[in-house]
Amino acid sequence: xxxxxxxxxxxxxxxxxxxxxxxxxxxxxxxxxxxxxxxxxxxxxxxxxxxxxxxxxxxxxxxxxxxxxxxxxxxxxxxxxxxxxxxxxxxxxxxxxxxxxxxxxxxxxxxxxxxxxxxxxxxxxxxxxxxxxxxxxxxxxxxxx
Length: 145
Fold this sequence. Notes:
- The chain is of the alpha+beta class.
- Helices cover 23% and strands 22% of the residues.
- The chain has helices at residues 3-13, 65-76, 110-120; strands at 19-22, 34-37, 43-50, 58-59, 81-87, 90-94, 103-104.
- The strands form two sheets. Strands 1-2-3-5-6 form a five-stranded mixed sheet, with helices on both faces. Strands 4-7 form a two-stranded antiparallel ribbon.
- The relative contact order is 0.17.
C-alpha cells in the first residue's frame, strides 16, 4: 500500500453519513489531503501520511513547512484539524498540534479509527470542547452580528 491506497481505504470504510472530499490543490501549498464533513455541518481537515515501514515505539509524521503552517494556522483559529498516519501494523492519529513532535505509536484498527473520526465530527468536540464561542486557544471567535 502507498499513501493514495491508504486514503482510498479510509474513504471506503467511512460510514455514509460522513462525506469525504479528497483535496487536490496544486496552487495553495500545505492544504491537507482530505476534508470530512460530519452530519451536523462539522468539518475535519486531515493530512494523510503512510509508511511501508512499521514504526514500533514512536513516530512523527514528515510534514512540509507549508503543511505545518497550514495546520497550525487553522488549529489556532478553531478549526478541527489532524494528521492520520498509516502503516502496515495500524493507524496513529495526531491531534492538538501533537504532529509537531513524536508520539507513541497507537496502531489503531480501522474500526477504532473510524470511531475516533466520527467522534471528532460531533458538535460537542467541533471546537476543541472549549465552547461554541471560543477557538482552540480559548480566545473569542470573531462573530458577525
